[in-house]
Specification:
The chain is of the alpha+beta class. About 55% of the residues lie in helices and about 5% in strands. It has 54 helices and 20 strands. The chain has a four-stranded antiparallel beta sheet. A hairpin with a 5-residue loop joins strand 6 and strand 7. The longest helix is centred in the C-terminal third of the chain and has 37 residues, at about 980-1015.
């Protein structure tokens, strides 16, 4: 009886209170206060219901019957009668219901459907921006209509799933029981905690749980609308998830609701409509005519992650296999979901600032990366977790199919043909990544034939462009080409490769590029790479070139970036054949090689699947076993200060010896310095273990075999275009052309070795020797096989160079073809080919022709409409850099890749004829079954390894290598050296090297002994004076030798390559506080007493200078005094020296990572590369022998008259000191630079005492006073006596020699 009489009335009265307390807000704040007041009044009522739920299952069953009984609700709702108060509350309820659906007026809907039926693609139609999304929804419609007037494009409606029969998703809500209206008001009041607790306390009742879940799904769209408007979205989000996670975590319940209430349709539709409210027109590619729309990352919806409760629910239900399969089987749902994902395709577009620095650095990239990871990547991983067996092949086919359709619509919407817009980059391509990851899963787990699900060649060409543009932009950003965009662009580049994002971003991008490379024409792909990296013009064999798209200062880093990308592309096997445990091991080794790691940091740095419920985290169960296999644990230790250092994992010796992979380190490096850190640790291991004593190069590691589906990737290593590039770069490196670093050479040799490791079937040397010339289709190489092309000699090359280049004076030999590149068979070239290619640039003329032909084939197979569009961009493939200022010249080359490698070995060793084919002594090296999988060594070792592999694969190569070595070596009678003679020669060579090392050590010891004697100024006896004079006189003729702590080379400081002393410049006023009186200072106790006495050193010298300037000429006065007592510059040094050019490179590397430094690199601050002491300048060491330097240190007992005479003579000599300084040299530039540093260290008022500002006399006075200041400060350190006092106890040492010598010479 109570359940039928009391409880329905009580719950209805609660609903009446909720109705009356709600007012449709005209302004937000009053409404919030009213809602809060209503909830306070109703708190006892809700508490009573909460107490009832605690009475047990019987009472919860009774409450369930009341809450879900439709008759009770109908009777009480219709029995309002003439009650005015009840009528008013019912009207408020109806008003509140108006905005509860997603529908809009029927005329707009009909118009939208009609437009869609006209044939416009679903994606271009996405123009569903906010206007059409909720145009009939109360107070939000006005704002969204305004959005629609901003030209987002035509607003057209996306078709919902074909299975959507129930229009409750779109229509206004209709309530049939107390539970439905109670939940409605709970949502309207933004989920008050008491109501949420009551509703959740009822969940143990199974009937209630089912009814409540269906009601929750019914109100899902209304929840989204309320959440968007809420000012407390964080609190509301937490309470929504608190409810939904308990409803959707049950797979049976989720499946039931999915079937009966169309849960998947509702969720996808609600997410779609939620994002439509913040769409803007995409400016990617075609800014004016683009029909594509993307989410605005600056909107509060994305910045505050308001969408995450809905995405979280969607991920939750996709973790259930039965629900996910229903999703993957429903084609309509997949279409709608791809439309949703396309909203994030190309968002947060970056445009490179070319003129001025951006005024405001937008931080929207945080929201963009979070949105792609949470809203796109996590659902993707959830779906992938259910596509692990052959039986699920059809699901993958469905996703790939609709993903490709969405991508084609996207390309059409942005008017993309084959060239990306310049100076634009977006890191967000979720459609590309969906396509890539489902391809990977199809091959790896479902045994699908890759070609059966790949699109045609034209689509693959389009698919590769934007991921490739991202890789090129990464190099541009690291090269500081985007510096005017601020630090946020570097933040995006770092986030893109960071461990929490890399699995969902850079890894799918590189995999997709690998797939495209394996199926596209390799010459087209290679040429596209170098074009995207803007280094096509650099790839010329001429000594000079004009780059039309890249500044010369960025050429080196962009070329390094292009080659490094190719090495990554061809070496990585993350999706091409590695198992999950192999991937985990490789990731762990890469992180440990960069730095020792704690267990927690290692867990954080290993890339994880974004969806923890997916069950496909690589090697998750074997983390500890892999860690114990690759690392040793260093126990925590107490430091001297009392703090405890954490326990760290460090790589085992076997890991350094056999598993260190620099390619994986480069891929996973967020900061460039981590790559150098890994190499430094690797070098230290090799030296400690005695495996290699020199400076090693990154080791070559044999790769895991490719999966059969991706064997086409190796075609890149065997295409003429790449061989042309490698030949050109080897030639330029051998000729010492600018902008080519050791890193470039390392990557070139790595690519050649990769090509030899992945050669196709062995060639037949006999066939090649007979028919080689007949097979020659162009003037570069006879074929595409690297082993064959290595021995192919190229005699002459026609190049395009500036008119000032030295090659212009040369005339073309009669036998040279007019092709961009001439080979040894140039005389046999058809005349038609000569005419066709005449006047084009030397490297990519062939590639341009091939690409044009490739485009023509595609256009022939396409519709006429597409032919018209593509014809516009085909003209872009004219010869790069062909400007009127360039002229054609003939370059004599007469080299092959083999000959270049042998000469390169000579250059790296510093000796002529350094390479000796090892098989001449031992033929067994050519017939060994397999070379080691892992190789240590330097550049010479790499060249030797490549030549050996080339000889092993071809008898002709072996013979040609021997011939080249005979030609380079002076002709001698062939002699077979016995093993005994070889041992004797080796022993003699070792002795010679030992003698050279001994002489170097003796010279270094003598230099250090002299340096010690120079700095040891505390002389105790005349005998010591005599000893010092004897020692210095013996070394009078020797030139000072300095050790560079960066490059490790020893040598004198020269005007062309000066050496400098690492110094710290600081302003100091310590000397100014010295007093003439020995009376101790007292604190003032009366107004008459002063804390600043008149007899301080600074005051005395200030008064002296003022007095002198009153009676004498200014120039004379400035020569009679010394300044620097206040604001003087104190120069200290750690004693280490380095080359000035090495220092500049070091500063550049620090500048790339300036975000993390504890000092300002832009102000010249740095830490000594050896001892890590703080410094801010480098003091150049003036060239000369040690005798000159000893003038300043020799202790003398001469009288004052003789000393004055010596000073006068020295002053006369100063005019002739630096004869070469008058001419512009590197030394003079650095001296001017350090003088500016010294002046900038102190304030201007302490540097300018002349009556005429900027007077040369003033500069002369300041620089001399710097020396006096440091001499006086050294006296203070030594207790007032240079001869009897001890050495300075400061952490840094005095550098009086350089201070007295260099500034004096510069001042002249």
């Amino acid at each position: 009886m109570m359940s039928e009489l009391v409880l329905p009335q009580f719950i209805f009265s609660l609903i009446q209170y909720l109705r009356e307390g709600y007012n449709e807000p005209a302004a937000d704040l009053p409404s919030e206060k009213d809602l809060h007041k209503t909830l306070q009044i109703l708190e006892p009522h809700v508490s009573f219901l909460e107490d009832l739920t605690k009475m047990g299952g019987a009472m919860r069953s009774v409450l369930t019957q009341v809450l879900t009984n439709q008759q009770f609700y109908k009777d009480l709702s219709s029995g309002i009668g003439e009650n005015a108060c009840a009528k008013k509350s019912h009207e408020k309820y109806l008003v509140a219901l108006k905005g509860s659906g997603l529908a809009f007026p029927e005329d707009k809907l009909a118009c939208g459907i009609q437009e869609q039926a006209a044939g416009t693609s679903t994606l271009a139609v996405q123009g569903l921006a906010g206007a059409t999304a909720t145009s009939g929804q109360g107070d939000s419609s006005d704002e969204e209509d305004q959005d629609g007037s901003q030209g987002v494009g035509k607003r057209k409606r996306v078709k919902l799933s074909s299975t959507t029969k129930d229009q409750s998703i779109m229509d206004v809500l209709k309530h049939k029981c107390f539970l439905e209206e109670l939940l409605f008001w709970t949502i309207k009041y933004e989920f008050p905690q008491k109501m949420v607790t009551f509703l959740l306390n009822m969940l143990p009742d199974q009937d209630y749980k089912i009814a409540f879940t269906k009601t929750f799904v019914q109100h899902y769209a209304f929840i989204m609308k309320t959440l968007k408007k809420s000012h407390e979205s964080d609190t509301m989000s937490n309470r929504i998830v608190h409810i939904s996670v308990q409803l959707f975590s049950n797979e049976e319940l989720a499946r039931q609701v999915t079937e009966e209430c169309q849960l998947l349709d509702i969720m996808v539709t609600v997410l779609l409509y939620m994002m439509e409210s913040c769409l803007i027109k995409s400016e990617l590619q075609d800014e004016e005519n683009s029909l594509h729309v993307v989410v605005n990352c600056g909107e509060a919806l994305l910045k505050n992650n308001t969408y995450w409760p809905l995405v979280s629910d969607f991920i939750n239900i996709l973790s259930h296999q039965s629900v996910a399969k229903k999703f993957l089987e429903d084609h309509g749902l997949l279409v709608t979901w791809m439309n949703f994902v396309s909203f994030f395709q190309g968002m947060n577009l970056n445009k490179r600032e070319l003129n001025e620095h951006v005024e405001f650095e937008s931080q929207t990239y945080y929201a963009a990366f979070a949105a792609e990871l949470e809203a796109c990547a996590q659902p993707m991983w959830g779906l992938l977790s259910h596509c692990k067996v052959r039986e699920t092949q059809e699901y993958t086919r469905n996703v790939v199919r609709y993903c490709l359709e969405a991508l084609q619509d996207w390309f059409d919407a942005i008017n993309f043909v084959d060239e990306p817009a310049p100076n634009q980059v977006t890191f967000h391509l979720p459609l590309h990544r969906y396509f890539a990851m489902f391809l990977s899963k199809a091959v790896k787990c479902q045994e699908l034939d890759l070609d059966s699900i790949l699109p045609d060649q034209e689509m693959l060409m389009k698919l590769m462009i934007h991921p490739l543009q991202i890789q090129a932009s990464l190099s541009e950003i690291h090269s500081n080409m985007w510096v005017r965009n601020g630090l946020q662009i570097k933040g995006q580049a770092m986030t893109y490769v960071q461990s929490h994002f890399c699995n969902s971003m850079i890894d799918p991008d590189i995999y997709l590029l690998q797939v495209c490379a394996s199926r596209l024409d390799p010459d087209y792909f290679i040429s596209s790479v170098f074009e995207r990296f803007k280094v096509v013009d650099l790839l010329t064999m001429a000594s000079q070139h004009q780059n039309t798209v890249l500044d010369s200062e960025h050429e080196r880093s962009m070329l390094e970036g292009a080659l490094t990308f190719l090495v990554l592309l061809l070496s990585l096997r993350l999706h091409l054949g590695m198992t999950d445990d192999e991937i985990l091991r490789a990731e762990m080794v890469a992180q440990l090689c960069m730095n020792d790691r704690t267990h927690s940091s290692l867990l954080d740095l290993i890339p994880e699947n974004p969806n923890p419920k997916s069950g496909i985290i690589p090697g998750s169960l074997s983390f500890e076993s892999v860690l114990s296999a690759v690392a040793d644990f260093k126990a925590p230790v107490f430091e001297p200060g009392g703090s405890m250092q954490q326990g760290m994992y460090t790589p085992k010796a076997d890991v350094w010896d056999k598993e260190f992979d620099p390619v994986m380190v480069i891929l996973r490096t967020v900061y460039r310095r981590d790559v150098q850190s890994a190499m430094d640790r690797y070098t230290a291991f090799l030296k400690q273990s005695g495996k290699f004593p020199g400076n090693p190069w990154p080791p070559y590691k044999k790769r895991t075999p490719l999966h059969p589906s991706y064997q086409g990737l190796t075609k890149l290593l065997h295409c003429k275009t790449l061989h042309i590039v490698l030949f050109t770069l080897l030639y330029k490196i051998l000729m010492d052309h600018q902008n080519l670093s050791e890193h470039v050479l390392c990557m070139v040799l790595y690519l050649i070795e990769l090509g030899l490791e992945n050669s196709p079937e062995q060639e037949t040397d006999e066939e090649d020797s007979v028919a080689g010339q007949e097979r020659c289709h162009d003037s570069w190489f006879p074929g595409s096989h690297l082993v064959t092309n290595m021995r192919h000699f190229i005699n002459y090359v026609r190049v395009r160079v500036p008119e000032t280049a030295p090659e212009v004076k040369r005339e073309a030999p009669a036998s040279t073809s007019s092709d961009g590149l001439a080979s040894s068979q140039s005389s046999r070239q058809p005349k038609s080919l000569q005419r066709e290619n005449s006047g084009t640039a030397q490297v990519f003329s062939l590639v341009a022709e091939r690409r044009k032909k490739f485009q023509e084939i595609i256009n022939r197979n396409s519709s006429e409409a597409s032919q018209v569009v593509r014809s516009k961009t085909s003209m872009k493939w004219s010869a790069p850099g062909a400007t009127p200022q360039l002229t054609t010249a003939i370059l004599e080359v007469k080299e092959s890749i083999l000959s270049l490698l042998i000469k390169l070995h000579h250059k790296l060793s510093g000796k002529q004829n350094s390479y000796y084919p090892p098989w001449l002594d031992d033929l067994e090296v050519l017939i060994q079954p397999e070379l080691p999988k892992y190789s240590h060594g330097d550049g010479m070792t790499a060249v030797e390894r490549i030549l050996l592999k080339g000889a092993m694969q071809s008898r002709l190569n072996k013979r040609i290598i021997e011939d080249i070595c005979r030609k380079v070596t002076p002709p001698v009678p062939p002699k077979r050296i016995s093993s005994a003679e070889k041992k004797t020669l080796d022993k003699e060579e070792r002795r010679q090297k030992a003698r050279e090392r001994q002489q170097k050590l003796l010279a270094e010891f003598a230099s250090r002994q002299k340096s010690f004697m120079e700095t040891a100024m505390d002389v105790e006896s005349p005998d010591a004076d005599i000893a010092m004079e004897i020692a210095t006189s013996e070394q009078h003729v020797s030139e000072a030798v300095y050790d560079c702590v960066i490059c490790g080379q020893s040598g004198p400081s020269t005007e062309d390559r000066p050496t400098g002393l690492v110094v710290l410049l600081q302003a100091s006023s310590v000397l100014g506080q010295c007093r003439n009186s020995t009376e101790p200072k007292k604190l003032p106790t009366t107004e008459e007493e002063q804390i600043y006495p008149w007899d301080t050193c600074a005051t005395v010298y200030d008064v002296r200078l003022t007095t002198l300037q009153r009676y004498f000429k200014d120039s004379s006065c400035l020569q009679a005094v010394s300044i620097g007592w206040e604001g003087g510059v104190y120069v200290q040094t750690c004693g280490h020296t380095l080359h000035i050019d090495c220092h500049k490179s070091y500063m550049e590397s620090l500048r790339n990572d300036q975000v993390l430094q504890g000092f300002s690199v832009d102000k010249g601050e740095f830490t000594c590369p050896l001892c890590r002491q703080f410094a801010n300048s480098v003091l150049p060491c003036y060239p000369g022998n040690n005798g000159e330097r000893n003038i300043w240190q020799c202790h003398s007992n001469k009288n004052m008259q003789d000393l004055v005479k010596e000073v006068e003579e020295l002053q006369e000599q100063l005019g002739t000191f630096p004869v070469s300084i008058s001419s512009e040299t590197n030394l003079s530039k650095e001296m001017e630079s350090v003088m500016k540093d010294i002046k900038n260290t102190t304030q201007k008022k302490y540097t300018d005492y002349s009556k005429t500002p900027g007077s040369p006399d003033n500069d002369f006075l300041f620089m001399y006073s710097v020396a006096r200041t440091n001499l006086e400060l050294e006296l203070v350190h030594r207790g007032g006596n240079l001869c009897l006092g001890g050495a300075s106890t400061a952490g840094k040492r005095s550098c009086l020699n350089s201070i007295i010598e260099d500034p004096c010479k510069l001042s002249v």
